[in-house]
Amino acid sequence: MQQILVLRDTGLGLQRIAEVLDGGPGPTSTDDEALAEQRRVLLAQRDAIEARIEALERTIEMRREGASTRSDVLLEGFNDRYEEEVVERWGSTAFEASNRWWHGKSLDEQRRWKAETEALLAEWRRLAESGCSPRDESAVRHADAHLAWFATIPGTPAHAGDTDATRAMVHGVADAYELDPAFHRTFGSEHAARFAAVALRARVDED
Question: Could you tell me which residues come within 8 angstroms of residue 123 by beta carbon, excluding any fewer than 6 positions away?
């Protein structure tokens, strides 16, 4: 019973505790693995809470300075809405690294970054509507610019310089660009999103 209480104090669920106790009396490697796993979970939760506290404090500061409440949307992490997918694909460490980077920016820096991102998307729309091929030189150059944009974001394989993982990431992102209506709206049209997806895949597969 004492061991159960100790394990519960760490935040482990009852099912995981049962798995640990199945290992028999006394410390076991299963105990160590469970505790190490729980430590990783708690650290990730702590980082997430700290990021949200920082966002809240920044929102309070903005409101004291008389900033429009509409500007509060800028304080949402740029990938908050895709948290589940990001964590599933690249892990909680990648998600938290990118969110710390985002929430560490000033409001002006966030606005500037979003403006640069809008320009990136607008160029994809222009290229798609121009009738050129996703493999034309202008599309290849813009695919390079998009890959460089990925590399500015901590937590991504591109930022870490991992070529193979970046290729896998780009293929996954390109699939989302093609299939997710939310990205169709982000790009301004389904055609532009699909055009960008084809160009990006082609570019990383050349390397």
Answer: 142, 145
